[in-house]
Amino acid sequence: PTGRSMLAVLAGLPGTGKTTVADALAGDGWRRISRDEVMPGLFGAGVKFGDPAQKEATFREMLRRAEALLVEGRRVLLEGMPFSRRAEIEAARDLAVRVGAPFRCLLCVCPDDVALARIRAQRGTHAATDRDDALYYRSQAAFEAVTVAHRVVDTTRPVAETIAACRAYVERAG
After folding, report:
1. 108 Cβ partners below 8 Å, 6+ apart?
2. Which of 12, 33, 136, 173 has its CA 20 to 30 A from that of 93?
């Protein structure tokens, strides 16, 4: 890969601002791979965002697409899922290592009431049709500690500050 290839993961509970950060980084030339877009593409009208087999197949497809882009020397951003299991983040990191690309993990956080308000405001318009309060609390209960090097991103800060901090962190890797 060229010196520009890099893999970044946006982790965090639903409603914590991962997509907002992803939108900004995609504008900087990052190739965004979102579960919320890949899953419906794989399963069409039969998509079930909560189905474990569909989620696993989607994650494998996301990694496959990321690898193809990384070997072309691209900067790739994985998002649209919580990355709540250590194994998911480690699989992404291992992919980056395998292709010789730097790896960054951004953990988006905000208070519960902020995340829940965002989820409620996006009800009916968000690609992930399973987003609701119950999903948030299930995800929170299942969320495993992030053990790889990462940057915690407080998404209650002004958007411009949040994005600037994310850009600074990922650019240090390259």
Report:
1. 10, 11, 12, 16, 17, 18, 21, 153, 155
2. 136
User: What global pTM score does this model have?
Assistant: 0.89
Q: Bridge-partner residues for 106, per DSSP? A: 10, 151
The CA distance from 18 to 20, in Å, is 6
CB atoms within 10 A of CB 4: 13
Residue segments in the chain with a per-residue pLDDT below the cut of 70: 1-3, 125-129, 173-174
Judge whether 31 and 98 are in contact, CB under 8 Å. Answer: no
Secondary structure E strands in 17-124: 31-34, 75-79, 103-109
> Residue 26 has which token pair?
């995609």
Q: Give the three-state DSSP class for 25.
A: helix
pLDDT, tens only, 39-53: 888 998 778 877 889
Candidates 16, 98, 88; CA nearest to 78 is 88
